[in-house]
Amino acid sequence: MEMLITGGAGFLGQQLIARLLAQRTLRLHDAGGGRDETVDRIVCFDQGEGAIRDARVRNVAGDISDPAQVRALVSKDTGAVVHLAAVVSGTAEADFDLGMRVNLDGTRHLLEACRALGTQPRLLFSSSIAVFGGALPPVVADATTPTPQGSYGTQKLIGELLVQDCTRKGFIDGRAVRVPTVVVRPGRPNGAASGFASGIIREPLAGVDAPLPVPPETEMWVASPRAVVGMLLHAIALSPADWGWHRSLNLPGLTVSMHEEIAALRAVAGDAVVARIRPALDESVMRLVRTWAARFDTARASSMGFVADADFSSIVRAYVEDNPQAIARG
Asked: Which portions of the chain are predicted below pLDDT 70?
């Protein structure tokens, strides 16, 4: 069976593909506990080609907002889709039309292409905790109504509803996971409003100064790339019966303040590294971040077998282990 990964050249997509290749197969459980499908081929789709070269991976460069290109991606062999392609939060807020074209229209084109197959392929939609905002309870629960306060969160919530309805109609076997802020993101900073949560770890470890645009007491709901990739694989592998009728889920994570992030960095790397963090309050960033939820009760996800990181220090150590080339020496 073939798996399509949109946004596959991004850092999460590449880690997802690497994990799939390392474990050789991913068994997708069926509804009745009978025959399982095995993923043996991967299509990596993004604006540019992914760096992973393997006989089992086909790299395709293109535009998720082009319906003809999206239709060409899926075939009768496409049994599973992981939809990661998106314009991130800060960029979607700054460029409304781009966010709508990529985040909403791209998702709709993908759902239409899967519907046209007539085979009900399994589709995992990567949503976000940005679907929650505004006046929220102290702890967001599974039953809390999504109330996005930004274009990105709105586009993600619409995508969730489309996945839910296409599943109800029998077009796909859909599921959507609301991903915590992923920390620490490797590579260059992107347009995500939450990017500073990675930047204050990544840049100091690389020997570069990092701005902190929010007060140190600011809390966020976070998860490591390792944990998120594991949860994505778990989400796509679960059977329809495991998901039931409600196909959107808040993923487990950790509530961490920027002060606690800095303390974890100090414990792992020392005072000299922490000294590279400098306060640089930015109202445009704070305006978005202060609307986001930082505490979640993810009882449903836990009952389904999803597992979060143990603590933030382990997230920092995992980043150092996974990205030795990005750590300054001496």
From this structure: 31-35, 330
